[in-house]
Amino acid sequence: MVGFQIEQGHFGDVKLDGLRAAGVYQWPGPVHEGNGTMQLIVDERADAKQRDALLKIMTGQETDDMATMWWVYSAMAPNKLSPVFAPIELEVDVDARRGKIAVPGILQSLGEPIKNPVTGQEHRVRIDLPHGFEYRLAEIGSGTSKASGQIKLDLKDSYGQFARLHLSNKGVVDEAR
Questions:
Q1: What are 150-169's pLDDT values in tens digits?
Q2: Handedness of CA 51, 150, 167, 65 (dihedral sign)
Q3: What is the pLDDT of residues 8-37, one digit of tens each?
């Protein structure tokens, strides 16, 4: 599952500020082997142009090959379910490694920091990808997610990731850290 909110952004001349979107994905094996299924969820507040723009972004349309995770997910998931337009509840604090997302009747997910199994203290773990196609830096946490829509998932204490995305159709847009 992937969920995000656009703080500031656009697709061509279509402003996307404040909108949210999510995706539920499932593969029979490793992602790179393909044959996955995906269902995209777009904020019901989006107008027709914004919906179209978000769907194009999340399916890698008008994106250079292999330039973003959206292109990769779409290429590896030939089974595309109809998109859903629904309210998306989202709270995220990247630095604290905490977040939650909910789309009624479709998904709910909770992310929190990884904890030391002996002391209970929070660990801080990061992935730094200087040449990644998703992000440059991500905070890693623990995630519990359940998808109950057309794609069924039930993941407990699994991998969770928190990142600030800065993407264009050419890939990650570098910024000063």
A1: 999 999 999 999 999 999 99
A2: negative
A3: 999 999 999 999 999 999 999 999 999 999
